[in-house]
Design a protein that fits this description.
It is built from 8 helices and 8 strands; from the N terminus they run ββββαβαβαααβαβαα. The protein has helices at 68-86, 97-108, 141-150, 158-171, 178-181, 200-209, 225-228, 230-242; strands at residues 2-5, 8-15, 21-25, 47-51, 90-95, 113-119, 187-193, 214-218.
Length: 257
């Protein structure tokens, strides 16, 4: 299915019939297949909405740049679309760069977000151990091949999209502050691998900055934790989204709240 988001004919999928809408934002240089066999199985409890960003997956590239502010505006438009269809604010989960977009969205439009899940996400480029660099021409073959499988623009266009993304990062580097992040009011779960491309110290900074955030570090996983331990990741996130928060027996960080 397709929907127009800010002038881009955007591919999206909608599955499930739950009363609440769950929007999933995929990672960088990939597409909504990031959630195949893991978070898309939550369609038993939610109406799950996924979309391929401009120039990614089944959504064509369009003239112009690809920057974080622009992608955040696209995500806002998609969440508005999903909220209208589901009848209220959505639960929002973002993976990797999709998590960064989800952060920006939650700061700008708190009215759209009921709860927030940030998976292997960074709020500042200094938090990354490994980050894209160059013009994207050295991307792993499996990344390029996955793009070629579904892109309407063809395999050779991957370099064009990659270059746009790198130019966008250079022009507007990721540099949210902890003060900006601390403005997030939605109930939030921060999820990371124990061997992620994001520094664990940065993940802790993110967790500590968001009031009353919850934290899950998935053992024995890397940045592709959703595919390495799909059942565990889905159970952790599904429990967070479906079970109301409750007081703990021995609170320290949350004591007095």
């Amino acid at each position: 299915m397709y929907v127009d988001l800010n002038g881009v004919r955007t591919w999206y999928d909608e599955r499930g019939s739950g009363a609440d809408g769950l929007v999933l934002l995929h990672g960088g240089f990939s597409d909504s297949r990031d959630f195949a066999g893991n978070l898309d199985t939550l369609a038993g409890d939610f109406t799950v909405f996924t979309a391929d960003r401009r120039g990614h997956g089944r959504t064509p590239d369009v003239p112009g740049p690809i920057t974080l502010p622009l992608l955040a505006e696209d995500a806002i438009a998609f969440c508005e679309f999903a909220a209208k269809k589901s009848g209220g604010p959505v639960d929002l989960a973002g993976y990797s760069f999709g998590g960064t977009i989800a952060l920006a969205l939650a700061v700008r439009r708190p009215d759209l977000v009921r709860s927030l899940v940030l998976i292997s996400a960074a709020f500042h480029h200094e938090g990354m151990i490994v980050a894209p660099s160059g013009d994207g021409s050295d991307m792993p073959e499996q990344v390029v091949a996955a793009y070629a499988e579904v892109s309407p623009d063809g395999r050779d266009h991957f370099r064009v999209v990659a270059a746009k993304i790198m130019e966008g990062i250079a022009a507007d580097p990721l540099a949210m502050t902890e003060a900006e992040v601390s403005a997030i009011a939605a109930r939030t779960l921060v999820v990371a691998a124990d061997d992620d491309i994001v520094h664990l110290e940065h993940t802790l900074d993110l967790y500590r900055a968001i009031p009353d955030a919850e934290l899950a570090v998935v053992p024995g996983t890397s940045h592709v934790l959703l595919h390495e331990k799909p059942a565990l990741c889905t159970r952790l996130i599904g429990d967070f989204l479906t079970v109301p928060p409750r007081p703990t027996y021995f609170p320290i960080r949350r004591a007095g709240r």
